[in-house]
Amino acid sequence: MDLENQQRVKDAAEKYGAENIVVVLGAAEAEAAGLAAETVTAGDPTFAGPLAGVELGLRVYHAVEPEFKAEVDESVYEDQIGMMEMVLDVDEIIEEMKNMREQFCKFND
Predict the structure, then answer these.
(1) In a domain, 109, yes or no
(2) What is the pLDDT of residues 27-42, one digit of tens each?
(3) 81 pLDDT exceeds 80?
C-alpha cells in the first residue's frame, strides 16, 4: 500500500473512528493483499509509511471474498469484479485475508 493511501486510511480512521471503517482491497495476489491488510490492521510492516507502528486493527476484506460479494448488487459485482474471479486464486486470497483478520483485526464481528 503506497504512502498516500496509508495516509488516507489513517486520516479516515482518526476522523470517523477505526471501529467505523472497512477497507476493501483488490490486489491480484494473496501476498500483496495480505501485506496491505497487515498495513491497515497491525501497521506498516516496512516501517516506511504513515501507518508504521500504528495498529488500527481495521476490518479489511478483499473484493472477491463472499462477505463483500454479499453486500454488493449482483449485476454490479459481475460487471466490475466477475472476471477477476476467473483469473485470480480466490481461495488463496480468502485464506490470506481471513488469517490477517484473525491475527490483527480489533473489530471482528
Answers:
(1) no
(2) 999 999 999 999 999 9
(3) yes
